[in-house]
């Protein structure tokens, strides 16, 4: 079956590409030391253990919808397309503002893509956004739409005092998928199981997790399998890639999984944002890809692997095209540098906890 | 509190600053008007949608310390009268800006934010606010 796919992916009519991308990270930050001070933890060992210094915090009037809209607007502007030609919008998040009522319609209206399109929200913890990308790829390949937009955005929730509180952050990225653009998507592969590692029941304010940052059966197993399946389909090896992006629940896991697969630190460096913004959940791998595209050159070969909820990974094989040279890149790292620190009290207030 | 039908009706203006332009005199209006106060009856059927860019200059401002109930928790916050680059005026909140930093003549651009929530069970209302143009 795998070979069946590889046999015709180079066929021109089936070409799919990233036409544009946009990213947004809120301006506020809280340092690991500040959270550790609150709970009597040792900041140095937590910071070193998780490989994270600070995380982004949404403003009092920001949520997944506003972050998705900001990222989507930047993507449309940079791509220079007519938003009315977008035929599908999917927003992946574990923190949609409504339990029932799509975020995707808010985004569609705010970018002027309504009314002739299909739209839906996805939920698969941290990998819902890349699931949306795969759907857009399929719709474009099938000739059903000209452009599709996939967004991964979150204002991640964590119970006060929970280990997740050190990393649960806010941010998002939007991708416009079409026939040709700044980066060709050569192939995608997924690996999914029902591993109960991370969940939130209906009506509960915070997610729960099986074990603190479950590694082997969840993160490492799914990412390595999806990455290996993709490389098998493509006939590639880690050294064939200029850049790699792996989901970033903390700063340590992506480094370790890169090593396990045979990638080096230089390959993951441009896309590793977790140490400075935290885990933006559905935004995580997609923001990492955006930061990588910010520095990529024509011909660069990129692998991105997302991961969510203990239970699934989506891998993508991407080649940057000549069109990147004239694309108005946003410089995400520069946007992240514009920041303002808040203390734990303000953080709680902005999160609507008090 | 705002009724859901009113919010729905105003979505184009609130999300995307879509106002009206009189095809006769060229004047631009925001919020949208169905009749041009200059051309009056001649403007009937001559008012077209006009999307404002959302960039402009602070003409005047005030700092709210005692907000209405739906904005509690956001104080102190800045409300400003903004002269948009198209020449029309709009009132809006300026966020991510210190009250010591805001000044008349400051360049701003529109951003998309949550305006208010109708309690814990009701609708969430989104719309424009402004940030410093950088």
What does this structure look like?
The complex is a heterodimer of chains A (354) and B (134). Chain A is an alpha/beta fold and 354 residues long. Chain A has a single domain (16-348), classed as Peroxisomal Thiolase, Chain A, domain 1. In chain A, 34% of the residues lie in helices and 23% in strands. Chain A is built from 13 helices and 14 strands. Chain A has a nine-stranded mixed β-sheet, with helices on both faces. In chain A, strands 3-2-14 form a three-stranded mixed β-sheet. In chain A, strands 9-10 form a two-stranded antiparallel ribbon. In chain A, strand 12 (301-305) and strand 13 form a beta hairpin. In chain A, helix 2 (32-39) packs across helix 3, helix 4 packs parallel to helix 5 and helix 7 (215-234) packs across helix 8 (253-261). The longest helix of chain A has 20 residues, at 215-234. Chain B is mainly β and 134 residues long. Chain B has a domain at 53-132: OB fold (Dihydrolipoamide Acetyltransferase, E2P) (Beta Barrel). Chain B has two helices and eight strands. In chain B, the strands form two sheets. Chain B has a five-stranded antiparallel β-sheet with strand order 6-5-4-7-8. Chain B is globular, with a radius of gyration of 16 Å. Classes of the chains: A alpha/beta (354), B mainly beta (134). The A-B interface holds A 27, 59-63, 65-66, 69-70, 73, 97-98, 106, 109-110, 112, 338, 340, 349 and B 11, 15-16, 73-74, 95-96, 111-115, 124, 126, 129, 134.
- Main sheet specs of chain A: 9 strands, mixed
Please identify the top-level CATH class of one domain in chain B: Mainly Beta
Approximate shape of chain A: globular
Number of strands of chain A: 14
Question: What would CATH call the architecture of chain A?
Answer: 3-Layer(aba) Sandwich
- The N- to C-terminal Cα distance of chain A equals 53 Å
Strand order of the largest sheet of chain A: 5-4-6-7-1-8-13-12-11
Assembly state of the chains shown: heterodimer
- Give the SSE order of chain A as H and E letters: HEEHHEHEHEHEEEEEHEHHHHEEHEH
CATH topology of chain A: Peroxisomal Thiolase, Chain A, domain 1
Number of helices of chain A: 13
| Helix and strand run of chain B | HHEEEEEEEE
- Hey, roughly how much beta strand do the residues of chain B contain? 35-45%
């Amino acid at each position: 079956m795998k070979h069946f796919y590889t046999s015709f992916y180079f066929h021109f009519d089936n070409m799919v590409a990233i036409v544009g991308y946009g990213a947004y990270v809120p301006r506020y930050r809280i340092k690991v030391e500040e959270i550790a001070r609150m709970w009597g933890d040792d900041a140095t060992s937590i910071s070193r253990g998780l490989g994270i210094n600070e995380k982004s915090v949404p403003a009092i009037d920001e949520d997944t919808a506003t972050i998705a809209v900001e990222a989507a607007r930047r993507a449309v502007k940079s791509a220079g397309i007519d938003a009315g030609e977008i035929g599908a919008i999917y927003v992946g998040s574990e923190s949609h503002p409504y339990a029932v009522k799509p975020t995707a319609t808010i985004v569609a209206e705010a970018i002027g893509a309504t009314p002739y399109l299909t739209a839906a929200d996805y939920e698969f913890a941290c990998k819902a956004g890349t699931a949306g990308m795969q759907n857009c790829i399929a719709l474009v390949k099938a000739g059903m739409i000209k452009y599709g937009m996939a967004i991964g955005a979150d204002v991640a929730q964590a119970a006060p005092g929970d280990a997740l509180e050190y990393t649960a952050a806010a941010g998002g990225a939007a991708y416009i998928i079409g026939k040709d653009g700044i980066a060709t998507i050569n192939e995608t592969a997924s690996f999914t199981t029902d591993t109960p590692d991370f969940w939130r029941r209906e009506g509960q304010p915070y997610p729960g997790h099986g074990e603190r940052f479950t590694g082997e059966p969840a993160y490492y197993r799914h990412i390595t399998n999806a990455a290996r399946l993709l490389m098998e389909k493509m006939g590639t090896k880690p050294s064939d890639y200029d850049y790699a992006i792996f989901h970033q629940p903390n700063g340590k896991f992506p480094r370790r999984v890169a090593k396990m697969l045979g990638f080096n630190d230089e390959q993951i460096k441009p896309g590793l944002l977790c140490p400075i913004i935290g885990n933006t959940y559905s935004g995580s791998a997609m923001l990492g890809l955006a930061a990588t595209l910010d520095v990529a050159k024509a011909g660069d070969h990129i692998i991105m692997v997302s991961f969510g909820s203990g239970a699934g990974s989506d891998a993508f094989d991407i080649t940057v095209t000549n069109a990147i040279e004239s694309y108005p890149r946003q410089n995400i790292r520069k946007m992240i540098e514009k920041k303002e620190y808040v203390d734990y009290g303000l953080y709680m207030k902005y999160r609507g906890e008090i | 509190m705002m009724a859901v039908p009113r919010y729905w009706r105003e979505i184009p203006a609130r999300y995307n600053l879509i106002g009206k332009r009189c095809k006769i005199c060229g004047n631009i209006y925001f919020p949208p008007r169905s009749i041009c106060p200059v051309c009056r009856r001649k403007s009937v059927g001559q008012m077209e949608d006009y999307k404002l860019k959302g960039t402009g200059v602070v003409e005047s401002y005030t700092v709210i310390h005692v907000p209405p109930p739906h904005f509690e928790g956001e104080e102190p916050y800045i409300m400003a009268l903004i002269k948009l680059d198209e020449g029309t005026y709009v009132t809006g909140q300026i966020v991510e800006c210190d009250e010591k930093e805001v000044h008349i003549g400051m360049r701003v651009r529109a951003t998309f934010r949550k305006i208010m929530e109708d309690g814990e069970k009701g609708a969430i209302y989104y719309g424009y606010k402004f940030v410093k143009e950088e």
